[in-house]
Amino acid sequence: MADASPGLRERPLSPFTQVWRWHVTMAASILNRAAGVGLYAGWLIFAGWALALAGGPDAYGAYCSVLASIPGQIVLFGVAVCLFFHLAAGVRHLFWDSGRGFMPRTATVSAIASFVFAIVAAIVVFVIAHLGQGSAS
Amino acid sequence: MSLYRTGLARARGLGSAKHGVGHFIAERVSSVALILLTIWLVWVALAVARGGYAEARSILASPVNAAIAVLLIVVGLYHAMIGMRVIVEDYIEKPLTKAALLMLNTFVGWAAAAIATVSILKIAFGAGA
């Protein structure tokens, strides 16, 4: 490769985490990606749930007892937080795609709002689910 | 001189082949669908937490709910597969590992979608009998 193409310019390297000052929008960005990975696991849990439900009461009972255990509940709560955070962050991205919400202050506020929404919504869903369980059985 | 340049050399620096935006658009379109499907998911999760096995079976006995459940798992995993592909492409440098993980992503995603779909249909079709 002695002569480079005329159109090929020196490409800039993207800034990496060591040279970035921590800010909340950066955290929201990488945690949105992490939440996506968590939701991948969530879909596999959902697929397993459907399989157990199709397998009959015994299979379903066994599957749900795993989900109802302490580790199971921690995982499910984590998936719920991921779901609601990814949802909020996804809506942020759709606004950005329309060219809105890029002002630093707006982006910071919407990032914090996403975090708050994720935690609050997950807790609300879990409280409602557990209250309902108590009254049914 | 330009006669002797390879196809690759001519293509360099000219930008993409105009196909790269496909996943970008698919990710956004599926995300809009998933906003609506998530509302249904939360409703079902709460109903099932309350009603257990019988409630879950009766929800999926309804054709509309079964259809939404299939859409949810297929669109959700499709969106997840696109996202996971981006993550693998971003962080995994070794070509063989990258190819293996991208393949694993595709296999696991479609396998889970197929298993969930058949399970939901089995419940939906079996419920009437």
Structural notes for this entry:
The complex is a heterodimer of chains A (137) and B (129). Chain A has 137 residues and is an all-alpha fold. Chain A contains 4 helices and no strands. Chain A has helices at 24-55, 57-68, 70-97, 104-136. With 129 residues, chain B is mostly helical. The chains are: A mainly alpha (137), B mainly alpha (129). The A-B interface holds A 4-9, 33, 36-37, 39-40, 43-44, 46-47, 50-51, 53-54, 57, 60-61, 64, 83, 87, 90-91, 93-94, 97, 125, 128-130, 132-133, 135-136 and B 9-10, 12-14, 28, 31-32, 34-35, 38, 41-42, 45-46, 49-53, 56-57, 60, 69, 72-73, 76-77, 80, 83-84, 87, 108, 112-113, 115-116, 118-120, 122-123.
Percent of residues in helices of chain B comes to over 70%
Number of strands of chain B: 0
Uncertain segments of chain A? none
Oligomer: heterodimer
- From the helix content, strand content and strand pairing of chain A, which structural class follows? mainly alpha
Average of per-residue pLDDT values of chain A: 90
Number of H- or I-type helical stretches of chain B: 4
Helix content range of chain A: over 70%
Q: Shape of chain A from CA axes?
A: elongated
Distance between the termini of chain B: 76 Å
H/E element order of chain A: HHHH
Instruction: Name the overall outline of chain B.
Output: elongated
User: Largest contact between protein chains?
Assistant: A-B, 38 and 42 residues
